[in-house]
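This week, look over our next protein:
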Amino acid sequence: MNGRMLVVDDEALFRQGLIHLVRNNPLGWEVVGEAADGEEAIQAVHSCKPDLIITDISMPVMDGLDLAERIHESGRDIMIIILTGYREFEYAQRAIRYGAIEFLLKPFSLDEACKVLRKAHERYRRKQSDIRIREQYHQVDRTERWREELASLLLHQQFEEMNNWVEGLLEEAARMPLPQCKSEIHLLMKVLTDMLAQQLQPQESGGLDTFGPDPLLWIHTVPEVIAWARSKSEEWMDMMMRLTREQQDHVITRVIRYIEMNYAGSCTLQAAAVHVHVTPNYLSHLFKKETGQGFSQYVSKRRIEKAKLLLHSTRQSMADIAEQTGFDNSSYFTTVFKQATGLSPREYRKQGAAGDHHE
């Protein structure tokens, strides 16, 4: 990758010679502008956006040291090479303080100039590599943060908030230039696709390429990018709501089956949650929402129903029935049964026997 270079010298022939040198040797630089003094160079910096300025130290209007100072004070990250006929240490010291990375002492040879420019390009290449690494880490951090925020909203089924979150990000992207806008939307689509893949069974995930970034290659305006992203985000939201609904139904079905298999023994909310791979708090909330009863209330009701059946259809003792329906002992069984039915187990059995005899 070539860096962008600005040549500054009040001698036109010298400038042209330096430009010719750069353009005809593989030094890693592209000359994007030239200036005859520091004032012109300041204007060129705004329009050319160079990565490197090579400037004479002695020029009218504004010399090279004043130019280096102005660049330094502006906060721009531009490398500077000073061309000088001076050997005085204070000049070098001042130039270094303002960010000069190299000096070329006039007159210099072709080899000397090439060596300095290649060395500057290696420095530029390392700097660009560092920038890319930082950007990648920043992108990973943002991706993880987005995933966590969306996952939290999904866990609590806050679909309206999820929609507002996505819309807020689209509004921010709409204010960016096209390349940054596309990059932002590409990242969003990756996060949405990854989250959807986690919700789908492996055999269902084949159609996820519809959320991929490829269409962005053929879109050339920011409004079109945002319109496409909004459409895909709405599709994603619909799919997530449907999948969440299906998974909730599946969870409740599995929990009720688990209760049927385990109510005669230890049948706790914690154990059921482990069985269906959700947290106890989530299961408690979901179970109450879907069945209208708390988990413990449902289990107790199922145990009482089974006990009623055994009281009517068998002559088993209270202790045996209590054991078969998940109660610790017959005393506790009697207490719970009476609270639920208004009758003790013995009274319920007698009432059932009387009804059968009457028939």
Remarks:
- The longest strand covers residues 29-35.
- Residues 202-208 have pLDDT under 50 and may be disordered.
